Amino acid sequence: MIVPIEIRQPEFKRYDITIDTLPKLHYDRKVAIVTNTTVAPLHLARVMERLEAPQIEVIELPDGEEFKTMETVLSILDRLFEARYDRSSLLIALGGGVIGDMTGFASSLYQRGIGFVQMPTTLLSQVDASVGGKTGVNNRWGKNLVGAFYQPEAVYIDPAFLETLPEREYAAGIAEVVKMAVMFDRDFFDFLEKSDLKAPETAVEMIARSVSLKADVVNRDEKEAGVRAVLNYGHTFGHVIENETGYARYLHGEAVAIGMVMANELAVDLGQLSREEAERIRVLLEKWGLPTRYRVENPEAFYEHFFLDKKSRNNRIKFILPGGSIGSYVMRDDIPKAQVLKALERFRES
Amino acid sequence: MIVPIEIRQPEFKRYDITIDTLPKLHYDRKVAIVTNTTVAPLHLARVMERLEAPQIEVIELPDGEEFKTMETVLSILDRLFEARYDRSSLLIALGGGVIGDMTGFASSLYQRGIGFVQMPTTLLSQVDASVGGKTGVNNRWGKNLVGAFYQPEAVYIDPAFLETLPEREYAAGIAEVVKMAVMFDRDFFDFLEKSDLKAPETAVEMIARSVSLKADVVNRDEKEAGVRAVLNYGHTFGHVIENETGYARYLHGEAVAIGMVMANELAVDLGQLSREEAERIRVLLEKWGLPTRYRVENPEAFYEHFFLDKKSRNNRIKFILPGGSIGSYVMRDDIPKAQVLKALERFRES
């Protein structure tokens, strides 16, 4: 006998991303703010000032990707159990991507899921981690290998968070914004070229357009299987660069900037992008002080590195490239190795 | 600026529960079977015989609720990473509820979610854990306090699994079946009274009706907030009994059987159930050798124990009772303490 089971789910998970001065927040639930030792001195007072709840715990973690582990997440859960938090309690992630990923993951686990609110403080986490629901931790086998898909119930992006962000980290966030524009929205690319992205109003518009684009991609992924992979533009090359340099020399966004320039070289060779538009992208990245050069000592070795990435299955590398011009994309897994090596050769002396 | 985000989800998660001799299963993905030292000698050969996959790992855990911990789940993940399993890999849970809960949880975590298949070997896990998606582990603060909601992609219930199940465990599963019938389906209760539930065809029908009823409850919970709590009929009292007896004297289903009889005493007093129908329920449970008596030494202390349960918020205990007769339910949080003590008094000498 076969019993077909259909578990009904809400068709949408809805939440608002508020890009504005942090409003007064009144919760009738216990709240725990998860933050780190770098962010707390800068922004915790501002959040506490605006927050009302029957109980507020602050969980301050050490700062750094090396603490993005299951042990840290379990320590968050321990704190919540000790304070007798229940299923109606709420976590607030105050910090960058590492804090957001761990807080979201802890929220998904605690009593099989409690609410969480994101207050991303870096440009990168504002544009990237606010949408998509990816949470998780690293382990000795790699990054983000253990985690959950879990959506926040609200995201608050206070432009004041950005005032204390180092210039270099701001630029690293811009790299992901440029990625979205090159792949999906030519008009947005024009906007990025001509705007002062440090000016508060322009920053707000940039963030709003980025998160809308990303939400659109995440939703299309349902029907258009794999379109979410387009978000890896610049990342296929970038991951190898990060790996070759021991995750020490470049911020993630910086490696992605170089990776986009590399992908563009390949795209130009394949007729997927004009040389002129490749230059426009390079110039925009350099305007933000992002690196666009990287010395590939051994193209063959660089190529072999692609296969260590968890995204390359069946020995086929999926390259994400502009799809003819800025504002469109193509996914190709049929590019001959020689073609890729030819593009990498150009970075030998760079 | 406020950007509304809507993340689209499939409206249903669909899977089949096949209640029949285990079919031949061909997977073109790597498979890991998670089982324990009690179940493996009984059923592993049968499963291996019918299973084809490019790689099959067997992860054999120690048997027992005390191993239902995060450490055990992390050890499952470690084995998968060591064997280089990827996002397309599949876990098979071969065992009772503990194995199912941990395997489902591990599946939800590995690379943010891989497929899993349930092969529940106890009647309790067949009727209870096959539907609902609750996975997780215990910790020093309580049971199932860390976990995820995660659906299997298929459930296979081979009646042969039941042949080796001790009589007492079979009866404990029956208690949960009786619970479903008393709450939701009078006709099903009649069927249980008049059928030989050990006969294979009748067992198959009993399991099929139970899982269908549970799927219906889980889906109604969307609209009818909290109807899922009805599944706690017998559990509110049962948990206290399990706790008072150190989780040692009774199987969970046995404590639930006593709990239902206690709830029924309260229901009779409140006019929610006739004495005659309360007797029918008691007789059916006793026919299976299930306990229906328990000596409440101190009704006042028993009552206080309700408040240690994570389900009783705001100092109000929600009692799930028959709603006038067998086949219907009522949820009440307005029952005076004196009324409950009066019902408990009757168990002082039992």
UniProtKB/TrEMBL annotation, chains A, B:
Positions that bind Zn(2+): 176, 235, 252
Pathway: Metabolic intermediate biosynthesis; chorismate biosynthesis; chorismate from D-erythrose 4-phosphate and phosphoenolpyruvate: step 2/7
GO terms of molecular function: 3-dehydroquinate synthase activity; metal ion binding; nucleotide binding
Domain 3-dehydroquinate synthase N-terminal: 59-171
EC number per UniProt: 4.2.3.4
InterPro entries xrefs: Dehydroquinate_synthase, DHQ_synth_AroB, DHQ_synth_fam, DHQS/DOIS_N, DHQS_C
Species this chain originates from: Nitratifractor salsuginis (strain DSM 16511 / JCM 12458 / E9I37-1)
Name of the featured protein: 3-dehydroquinate synthase
Reactions it catalyzes: 7-phospho-2-dehydro-3-deoxy-D-arabino-heptonate = 3-dehydroquinate + phosphate
Primary location group: cytoplasm
Record GO cellular component, one term: cytoplasm
Record GO biological process: amino acid biosynthetic process; aromatic amino acid family biosynthetic process; chorismate biosynthetic process
Record text on cofactor binding: Binds 1 divalent metal cation per subunit. Can use either Co(2+) or Zn(2+).
Domain 3-dehydroquinate synthase C-terminal positions: 173-312
Family indicated by similarity: Belongs to the sugar phosphate cyclases superfamily. Dehydroquinate synthase family.
Function: Catalyzes the conversion of 3-deoxy-D-arabino-heptulosonate 7-phosphate (DAHP) to dehydroquinate (DHQ).
SUPFAM superfamilies recorded: Dehydroquinate synthase-like
Named cofactor requirement(s): NAD(+); Zn(2+); Co(2+)
Protein residues bound to NAD(+): 63-68, 97-101, 121-122, 134, 143, 161-164
Gene3D superfamilies: 3.40.50.1970, Dehydroquinate synthase-like - alpha domain
Keywords associated with the record: Amino-acid biosynthesis, Aromatic amino acid biosynthesis, Cobalt, Cytoplasm, Lyase, Metal-binding, NAD, Nucleotide-binding, Zinc
Places the protein is found: Cytoplasm
